[in-house]
Amino acid sequence: MKWYIPLIIVGSCLLLFAVFGEPGTPSLTYETTTTLAETDPVNLTVTYTVSLMATNTGTTTADNTVISVYLTTPPDAPEWQQTDLIFPVGRIAAGETITRTDTANLRVGKETYALLVNETPPETTVVGTYSDAFF
Known about the structure:
The protein has 135 residues and is an alpha+beta fold. It has helices at 5-20, 110-117, and strands at residues 28-40, 45-56, 62-72, 82-92, 97-107, 123-132.
């Protein structure tokens, strides 16, 4: 047997692995906690502390993970405002949970400010993107 035949077999297996990836897929679940941090009645600004917890419940690593959290005024508010937080997380291994915390400001009108100060929480939407890690 020639010495290069095992190298060809191993190289072919690595090429197949690179093309088709690992068996299984990543699966991310998100949980957010939004708490009222401070209020500014002069500028009609409400500041929230947003804690994000992301868990990879899949069987493979999620790579290049970026998670966006959007805060919008409640549906019954007289005006609509939105702000977003972007969390560049990076790699989340299978079974791993990460936690990130940041603050966000909503600058609103008088009626919406009164609604938010009286403990009506903003709406929260979480969007995450990732790619499969091959190696």
